Amino acid sequence: MSVAAVADWRPGPAPAVVLRHDRARGTDLLLLPERVVVLKGAAGTILGLCDGTRTVGDIVSELADRFPGAPVAGDVPAFLDRLRTEGWLR
Amino acid sequence: MTTAPDRPWALLAELTHACPLHCGYCSNPLELTRRSRELDTDQWAEVMRQAGELGVVHTHLSGGEPLLRRDLAAIVTAAEHAGIYTQLVTSGVGLDRARLSELTGAGLRSVQLSVQHADPDASDRIGGRRSFADKERAAALVREAGLPLGLNVVLHRENLDAVDAVVELGLAWGVDRIELANAQFYGWGLLNRAALLPTRDQLARARDAVGRWRERLAQDGPELVWVVPDYFDGEAKPCMGGWGAVSLTVTPDGTVLPCPAAASLPDLDPPNVRDHPLDWIWDHSKAFTRYRGTDWMPDPCHSCSRRDQDFGGCRCQAHALTGDPTRPDPACHLSPDHHLIQALTEEDAAAPKGRPTPIRRRTPLRPKTAGQRL
Ligand code: SF4
Ligand code: SF4
After folding, report:
1. Can you list the pairs that B123-128 forms with residues at least 24 positions away whose Cβ atoms lie under 8 Å?
2. Rounded Cα distance, B151 and A87, in Å
3. Does the structure's ipTM exceed the value 0.95?
4. For position B151, what pLDDT does the model report?
5. pTM, whole model, 2 decimals?
6. Taking CB atoms and an 8 Å cutoff, what residues of chain B touch A20?
7. B19 is annotated as contributing to ligand binding
């Protein structure tokens, strides 16, 4: 996929995919039919920004503000693209 | 000091045992709960609330036929409020457009539809009722509503040769997932085992067919799930992912069990949500602690390297075949009782001889009132 396509993309959860915080276990989860994905580290925070309105660029700059010095510019688009390949984001 | 057990992820909610179908392998207990004993709407809502608190994030709304509960949408709403992802497990009978939109409006997330065979007449015969056309219509409605749709087929002697056609049916109906679940032999399945048990050859052919479909569908086809038959490979199945480890079942009258078949086990003293909170039941009740972990195991399981993978197999199967639920699952080749199963699966032992064995069926429980929609 071209960099431009990534930049234009406003990621949001695919239908039937639910992001929620799990209070009983203190973790973020993705819920799908017959499946639970436990989100590690900042994954839940990143996905929380994927609401279909923000572009990947918006998400990256918001995270860069929140986590100064973290390698968000490279890692976050790659992470989002991986989740799109899984069919969890679109 | 003992540490608290892991929290359960999933709840199987058997909302009613009533069902318009009467399959010979039904996973409901032989003794079906009467409709008058069922939990009411508020009680199910409270079950969902407590389950969510406990850590449950997924529920299968099942039966019997859950659509026979007129308050199904209210139960879906309660689950949704508790943060629980809902899947309707249905025969498809009674799912019209109005009902589906009521359910999706309440927050229903996905649907699993059972089919008994790819051939309409055979499907109707196995289910004991004309229902294939209803299923086809239900599949189309779910697709139209944009909900994920899974197709579930219990496999046995009468439909194992039709695995290719079943997968083709799933493709034609546009499903996202096809679950091919080999029949399990306790309860109704054990009663009808002589009629249901496939031959070794039949099973090998079906397994090959599934392997070929997996390759073909690997890129963008539906997910294909093959639930292994435990009678043929000398290996016990890791039942329910461990006793009281991953999920719990609440039956129509509020009894809470570690697995839907466990009602048949002696000495469990099954707890009920009418008497105890769900977290106490999960953490402390005899039913859930009795076979949790590995301490309860006798040898050969206790000293076996596989005990943390298969948990000694299925307690219900051990009890049904040996009379003693603490023995290793006879499906395991290391079990002293393995001969009980081996004899049944030797070459030709299961081949039909003479007249076919008749299927013994549950009589359908009648809906509560004559006017209730199916
Ligand atoms: S559809 Fe068949 S297996 Fe399922 S509850 Fe009804 S009778 Fe039992
Ligand atoms: S002996 Fe018990 S633990 Fe070992 S493989 Fe057999 S059933 Fe599993």
Report:
1. B126/B23, B126/B24, B126/B158, B126/B159, B127/B21, B127/B22, B127/B23, B127/B91, B128/B21, B128/B22, B128/B23, B128/B24, B128/B361
2. 19
3. no
4. 97
5. 0.91
6. 57, 83
7. yes
